[in-house]
Amino acid sequence: MLSELALDLAGSFRPQQFSNVLWGLAKCGFKAPAAWLGPYLEQAELQLHHFQPRNLAQLAWALAAMKAQPPRSFLANFLAECSDKLSLFKPIDLAHTLWALATLAVTPPADWLSSALAACSAQWQQFKPQELSITVWGLARLGAGFRTQLYPAHPHYGLTAELGEDGLAGLMAAAAWQVPAMSPQQASTLVLGLAVGGAVLPPQQLQALAGQVLLVLRNSAASCCSQALTTVTWALTKLQWTPSQAQGALLLSLLQQHQQQHSLSLRQASLLLWCLGKLRLRLPADVMSQLMAQLQASMHAAEPADVVQVLVGVRTLGWRPSEHWWRRFYSSSSSSSSSSSSSSGSLLLEQASAVAAQWRLHQGRAGDCEVRGRYVRALKFMAAEANVTQLLVLSWQPDAGAGG
């Protein structure tokens, strides 16, 4: 096999050959077992100080494409070698290295991440659309913050290094130039990275970014998947976006289009409903009824956090379900939680079911108000327990291209 031949010859490889061979094997779909990867990287580690930035980036991309976790000793030396050369990395090298480290869930030291931010800031205007998109996503996943002032590590996001005012200004200028040329996935990955990185953008700048991204989704309707729409909506909500009337109408039309095509998964539909509630955007009554019927029919496969998002969306949008809807909804969602191993998930559903039952039993105005208050308190408790705003961040994986 090629992999066995490569391992036999690794002792005579030059730095570029190490990265080229591993890249080629990754492109062929090779999944390197630990027994093969360890000896191969041992040989590469002996020459790491001779690797050029392009070789380091290509090697990292190949490891991530294979989903292969390198030994700790190699990773430590790899990060040290990159740190010495980050100022020499071109945008494509930075993009592939940061994407790879984020994909492999590596946690680089704060000073390493600060150096990476500085290297990116010096070249924002040279990044191509795909490079900019996965770089921002990778930095955010690695713990970088995109804020205008330097703060200590943020306890919610776990940020360990900050971009600063000049760096953010350069990034947003590059985004304004490159977003119109992005695909829906690239644009959604960019705004997701900004949201995860805790960016705080001026309202006008955020409005302009949102308008560009929504136009990308509209103009690429054929390739705009429901995942991209959901990611954009969640990220803009997290960035504290206040949509204009035109932007809100465009977002609702895109959502309506996907709903009519039945392309929304349960997770996507429930998260979009939560976002609509936060954004104070209301679907037409007939579309809302269709969406809620679709959610109701899918609740047997729901996770507890999906249930929470639906309930929060119902409350914030002011949609009043019928008794029949409540009965079917909780019957399905409770059965789904019976197979869940999450004790907190069962507790959430117990709370929600109890409140819904009380809501149905109380007919008087005073009783209805009392139950409504208890319902709201239960929703706040459930939202805190489920950490619903982080669901998409944990599951979204952008495409990094060929890596060559």
UniProtKB/TrEMBL annotation:
Source domain of life: Eukaryota
UniProt-listed InterPro entries: FAST_kinase
Name by which UniProt lists this protein: Uncharacterized protein
